[in-house]
Amino acid sequence: MTLATLAMLAPRLAHEFPVADAAGPEWAAWILWLPALSTVLCGMCAALKVRNKLPAWITVSLLSGSFILTAMLFAGYEQPVTIHLVDWFGITWSDTTFVANFAFYVDRLTLLWMLFVTGLGTLIALYAGEYMEGDVGAGYSRFFAGISVFLFAMTALVMADNLLMLYLGWEGVGFASYWLIGYYYRKPSAVAAAKKAFIVNRIGDLGLALAVYLTWHAFGTVQYAELFAAVQANDFSAEAGGWSVQAIPFLLMLAAFGKSAQLPLYVWLPDAMEGPTPVSALIHAATMVTAGVFLLCRMFPLMVLNELALPVVAWVGGLTALFAASIAMAQHDIKRIFAYSTISQLGYMFLGVGLFTTAGAAYHVFTHAFFKAVLFLTAGAVMHGFAGQIDLRKVSGLRHMPGWRVTSYTMLYACMCLAGVPLVTNGFWSKDAIMAEAFAAVGPGYTALAIIALVTALLTAYYTFRVWFRVCAGPVHYEPGLEQHGDAAGGAFHPHPPRLVINLVLLTISAGAVASIFCAEWINGMIEGSTAAGGLPAVHEAHEGAGVWSDPHAWMPYVAGAVGLVGIAIAWYLHLANRTAADDLKRALQGNVVSAWLPRAMENKWYVDELYHGLIRAPLWLLGHILNLLDRYVLDMVIVDGVARIPRMLGRGFQPLANGVLQSYAVSMVGGVALIAILVFVMPEFLEMLNGWIGGAR
Amino acid sequence: MTSLTLSHFLFTSAVLFVIGVIGFVSRRNMIVMFLCTELMFQGAAIAMVSVGRYHLDVSGQVFVIFILTIAAAEAALALALVVLLFRRRETLNAEAWSELGEP
After folding, report:
1. Predicted ipTM?
2. Which chain B residues are Cβ-neighbours of A655 within 8 angstroms?
3. B61-79 pLDDT, tens digit each
4. Contact A42, A125 (CB under 8 A)
5. How far is A663 from chain B (nearest CA, A)?
6. Which carries the bigger pLDDT value, residue A437 or residue A145?
7. Which of A660, A666, A667 sits opposite B101 (nearest CB)?
8. Does A562 touch chain B (CB under 8 A)?
9. What pLDDT, in 10s, does the model give residues A468-488?
10. Residue A651: closest CA among chain B residues belongs to which residue?
């Protein structure tokens, strides 16, 4: 596509959705204010040292209120509207204006995101009420205040009617993420992970900040309604060819890759699993990490400003999907496997956005939110019940243990969704929508990208069921983790099966996952009526023809289903039918000189952390040390101390004069006067010289 | 017989002053040192008077009157100080007071 065709395309794309020109109901403001109120109340609970589960009930009830209001807004939705809350920025100078208020832009995309954000937020807060009960009276209020801040910021991000409020929410969710990853602040690894998440996200945030500025620079507004109207009117021709407009999609992309953990900024997400498991489920799997996808969907009309932008998104997404899946295959920590799986699935979502199938991407976001929340919550239930045990080699046969049935089978269903078992799982349908589009789309190397996506699906099925076959199936065996409390007195360790609330939440979210199987058409409609309406511009022409094999949408379900089942079968053979086969395979690989590096590299996450350490941290560390030495020895010792030493040396020279003997003072005084007298009277030329100096100074 | 010139007076004043300085520097007794400072005063006073006379100007003599008055007041003060210092250390030796010196 050339720039000329794009100039035609951008307004055509933009015309496919209605832009808000009416005001919405004012009560909707409470969708934002309820989480804020919850934050304040939880903060008060922390200040008053509340020693019961009050913060959990405050959070759950206010967040459910937020969800109910969102549902009411959805039920009464007719057309895109803006809802004004509070004036924020309204600056005018000469003929320029900058307006950014606290206001909502409600279209179908907003509603879709808000429904699952508030809905899952409520359910996971309910789960956390039981999960975090060990911290009642200690960090309990702090935890729920963090969850409430997160929901507040996420609501601001999703519902914002301008880029500045979106930026506020964007930074807010980053801060909430930092807060909650570092929840166990006595644990050095958790604090390090929190810092890592925050610092890596800064790189993406810089991209967003620059994108906001350039958008304002190019379009003269950051408010969506005016911005999209300007795009529809093609009203940016003055600088449309300039680099500053062309850069906007790439900067937005950088922001999205940071927040949604894509190559090369994904490294923070696996470490973020140091946080409590409900946080991993809510923030680092279901909602916050999809903010990048949301940003690209919301700003989709701007993403076509450069014809290379969307292919880059597609390629980064596809490569991230494969890369993260390959790492997930060789990890032992269940939560980290799921974290890499999240990165991999987010890769699919970006692949979808890059291929213009925003509907497929949004559908995958929606289905992924449910099944990944279940996966994390079941992993959390295992951690909770086995004193922090999270190594898949140390727990097995979970489904045969009393009280673990719900956990095992909801996990099985979520694993099936992730693996893409045909027909009965939501993940199958959403992944299928993206992969079919990958085969159908025409673009730079898209066939290779489609094959990458298919291979990734195979790996996904394998590593997902590796977890399930190891942990839930097989002989009953367990070793407790390190966080033993209460059981030490009895000597023997007894697992705590999850109680009613956790089971109920797991079943509810699983039911949501089942329900989302039937949501494909609904989500298509939601996306078509929103800013993300991508349409499919002229990419299908090459495939138009008769026969099943010429249309990927027709044959993809069979291929994707088969690939998923093959992956599960491999996992079944290596980890259930023959539980030592995987180790044998690893040993065989290590025994061969040619392939010995492979298992080690995969277990060590392809050494990416080490690479970043070498490329970024080590040089910075070295630079810091050089500057430290420079400061200590050159600045401090030579310059500061050197200057300070001059008066000290002078003083040392004259010190003998001040010996405390009155007569010697008198001698020096007389001597001084005599010296001056000699200079003045006996050496007239000296006097003249002095005169010359004084005259010169004058 | 040669007539008295200004140089004679100035020489006398210089001699008095130098005697005072030498005495001040060489003696350790505070009262003697004080007397030596008075001697230096007198040297200066003679120089003033003689130069004033040489120029037929009375301000030299006026200065001297002032100097004498102030020297009288200062003598009272200085002797009181010497008495106080003596009470502290039971000695008139000026070397007993050397706290201000650098070690």
Report:
1. 0.82
2. 102
3. 999 999 999 999 999 999 9
4. no
5. 5
6. A145
7. A660
8. no
9. 999 998 888 888 877 755 444
10. B102
